Amino acid sequence: MATNGKGEVWTAAGKSQDDFMLKDECILLDFADNVIGHDNKYNAHKWVVGQPRGMLHRAFSVMLFDKNGRLLLQQRASDKITFPDVWTNTCCSHPLYGMAPSEVDAPEATLKGQPLGVFHAAIRKLDHELGISPTDLDVNKFAFVTRVHYAAADVVTHGPDAPWGEHEVDYLLCYKLDVDGEQLKITPHPEEVRATRWVTKDELFRLMDEKREMPLWSPWFCIIARKFLEKTWWGSLKDKKAVVKTCKDWATIHRFDCPDHLAKDGVGGGQGRAAPFLDDLEKQVRASPKKEAEILKNAFRKEMLNDIATTTAVHGRSGASLKQGAYGKVPTHSHSKLDQLLRPREVIAALTLKFAPKLAGLRDNLGGSTNEDVRFCDDMLCKVSRSFAAVIQQLPAGCCIDICVFYLVLRALDTVEDDMTFYAGNEGKKEMELRAFASTRLLNDSLEPIKGCGEGDERILLENFGAVARVFASLPKTSRDVIQDVTQKMGDGMADYVTAELAQGTQDTAAYNLYCHNVAGLVGEGLTGIFVGREYESKSIEAGGALTWPFCTENHLGLANSMGLFLQKTNIIRDYLEDYVDGRAFWPRSVWTKYATISDLGDFTRPAARGGGDSKCIDTDHAKSIVTKGASHRALHCLNDLVADALELVPDALEYLSRLKTPEVYRFCAIPQVMAIATLYECFDNEEVFTGVVKIRKGTAARLIVDTQKGHATTLQTFRRYALLLQKRSSSCRAPPHVQQRVADAAAAILKATPEPSL
Asked: Has 124 been annotated as catalytic?
């Protein structure tokens, strides 16, 4: 007797169709029929925005023949949620995850023709649907024939905007009885089966052609009948051995579109307007069989990105601005103008920055130079970093140009690393360029420039990098040494990731921290070196903090690294969708795999992972109720876990700020930090992280910038304000209790580091 893996007997007693849809866990697959996870039937069968073809899962179709070679058909019950009232094969259902005996088959079992898990599932469902006793069946008499991959929206029942459908790799099973069909005891379950009928081959195809008695047929059985049964009534059906000898095709997955159930000219195909694609995929595989694995891997990746595109298209149409990613458009979620206008203090701050920046303490100590190269650097700074340029320009004249050059050098290096097409197929050259950048381009202004890499202003910067190199050569030796050292280390770190597989994030938290060190912690180290070398700050900012890092010798520069990591982790959390679409993600696998139901980081983009968050994209109340039902908040669970991890860096970052003595340097360092805590709070428990890029209000950013002029006490109160908000929401955020507690503890640590304001 089947159990659910917890020792509980799987039974239909007292369960409705709704119960089965919520409790039964389908086995989710990639396009090569490899198991990648599991989810409930509700989620797997939703054809909605965010997953327009549902979730590909494993299924089986039993063809039960009596000793005379007649096939048992069933008409699905009117109460069935998907494809009710259609005529189909004897039994069609799903092997389930978490059952005992196990119903999950490994590839090896399938290739040997012995998917015992599917056989056990077939026995379970023949009993449930038709009342055929397991004692009347022998698991060893099931003949596995082949597999069919098909997709079909239930447009017959629910119309062209159907929220339900099937997307399956269907295992075709044949079973030959030793008795007449009438001698087999059948007791159909009324919520599963409306009627049954034994038919000969001729009768079957007459009934399917005429459609008078049986007008509705399941799309999967139409494929089975026309593509397989019509050619051979499965090997004359003497016995299993004869069927296998004549018809076995265990290694093949046959792919077929069901055009009547998919979109045509943008109409039909369910809520997500799913279009045909399997016929084309089948042609690709047949044309290049040796490349089948690669073709299927790429096709599955494309499917995940197409799923995301249905979501981003909706948000794009709703008025969100669009941010260009490597594949399609990733929207930026901005606040409305009304939302902004209702906050007068922020409006005043924004107007001050725009029309009277000197009142906000932003004086330009970089402009006005007569040197053509310096003017180029100033101009490029404003173009490649519009938001941060003014903060660099307000630095003391004695180190302003040093930081400007440092920023432009790293921006140029980052452009080389970020461009995923310029070096495509020649990754070795890209790696060499990154490792040699500090010792070649930084030191030699006459080198042939890199042309065609990057886009827009970043491309111009690279093509005219000789000007930056000449200004670099004019800097004091202390600054040059720091900039070259950090550029070399960062280039080496970036080069290590050129050929790394990052589509699914970094390996673990150690690799996550190391990556953040390579791209941000090193920046903190470099800035610290320049500030100390120029004697604007004391060596106290080179100290370690409460957190220890394996990349900091004796925790030297630990505070600077914590500050840099806080910024980078915030960016990585915010940029989840853009990074995933770009194929270079950084959320650590050791964290996200604890929450995802499949072995793909894109799982969190699906509405089923966000509480059905895309219900707002669907027109009817009925469809909205379908999207939310069965959904979990696993995406938010993971997001909030990573937010807590980032928050734990704040006390060290505040300690670094407290040791700064030069007001302009303080503001330079404090502004990114207050922006980060505001952004992190905006991302916290926010579904929009998974549908676009979350941004704080422009007015909020302006107020934060203006407030840093008031000094460290005001910055502490800014952090305290956000910590109180996080603490208040920690117990109600969508996360497991241990994550809620981690957020609360991190907020408490920030509150401890930020004293209450005096009356």
From this structure: no
